[in-house]
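pasting for ref
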Amino acid sequence: MASSPTKNTVMYYPWHHFVLFPAAFILAAYGVRRYVDVAGNDSEDSRLWFTVAALAVVGLGVLLMLRQHYALTLQDRIIRLELRQQYFEATGQSLRPLEGQLTLPQILSLRFAGDAELPALVQAAIREKLSAKDIQARIQDFHFDHMRV
């Protein structure tokens, strides 16, 4: 019997969590340790270990920022799905034929609109090529999103 994921289920991406991140952490720690041993010497070893440590620390930072990128990409996909559902509930029609004419910033702004004004705002955004800021300025029934990462 397969178990369903629960609220507390932790998902791992093996390459990120068990290979890249530990390797970058070990390399950064080792590079910093070795540089500290030779710091102050104007030698090739000093420059080499400084370079290794700096690159490893930057790489570690990139891997940490990658987690944020994953979360934001997933949220953008969820917002797109929520907007499709909201548009369908408001109009009885699919948003998919119109989606290709909307930019991601427009879609992200349209999510703040209430059901009554959403269809007209979608049409205006397409027809007038409204910016995200312009869309938000036209929203009368603003629904805040406090769950964005």
